[in-house]
Amino acid sequence: MNLLPPVTKNLLIINVLCYLAMVVGRQYYLDLNDILGLHMWLSPRFHLWQPLTYMFMHGSLEHIFFNMFALWMFGRVLEQILGPKQFLIFYMVCGLGAALTQELAQTGQMLLAGLPFDVSVVGASGAVYGILLGFGYLLPEERIFIFPLPVPIKAKYFVIGYAVIELTSALAQRGDGVAHCAHLGGMLFGFLLLRHWRRMRIR
Predict the structure, then answer these.
(1) Across residues 33-59, what is the average pLDDT?
(2) For 56-77, what is each residue's pLDDT tens digit?
């Protein structure tokens, strides 16, 4: 942990502490995921803090493990490239952008279905997908191993593949309990922010 850059390390710690708090809360019939998770803005259970707090909550051990593994694997590299301050801004923008995209998607589904549509969304996945996008955007030729592929693939193809999978899943509306629109939103806002920073440097 001491070898990790500061923002990545603290994000890992905060997420793990929040997960442990959620587990302990369940023993006392306190559902922190319902309180701190993201609800639809029209829901009586929606609160202004949720677009921020939802990204530090997780629904299961598997959920937090894969998110934190991706944060550790790709976030530390991105932080070394961007620097701690810029990386933190990037992470938060991706997470908040994912929340906004999810809210818009849920509103659209409600209008199409004609029924209230409210689920509690939790997880750092939106911000993590933004990190994956950032890794592929800044290091497109970097080769990475992805199980079960027998050979390494370039980061740009890895990111494109994930984006296609998430877009297909979102359009399919499979009801699999995964906020695919939030994942896409994290990638979109990450891309827009990196493009903005690149234009600012060129000027």
Answers:
(1) 95
(2) 999 999 999 999 999 999 999 9
pLDDT digits (tens, 9 = 90+) for 107-126: 888 888 776 677 789 999 99
How far is 61 from 50, CA to CA, in rounded Å? 21
Instruction: Please write the tens of the pLDDT for every residue from 121-144.
Output: 999 999 999 999 999 999 999 988
Q: What is the rounded distance in angstroms from the CA atom of residue 175 to the CA atom of residue 132? A: 24
The pair of structure tokens assigned to 181 is 């629109």
- Rounded Cα gap, residues 67 and 128, in angstroms: 7
Q: For residue 140, is the peptide bond before it cis, meaning its omega torsion is within 30 degrees of 0?
A: no
User: What is the spatial distance between Cα 82 and Cα 90, in angstroms, rounded to a whole number?
Assistant: 9
Q: What are phi and psi of 144, to 5 degrees?
A: -130, 150
**Gap between the Cα atoms of 22 and 37, Å rounded:** 11
CA end-to-end distance (rounded Å), the chain: 37
- CA dist 118 → 13, 109, 193 (Å): 29, 10, 29
Tell me, rounded to whole angstroms, the distance of Cα 175 from its chain centroid.
19
Interacting residues of 122 by C-beta distance below 8 A, sequence separation 6+? 33, 36, 37, 38, 54, 57, 58, 59, 63
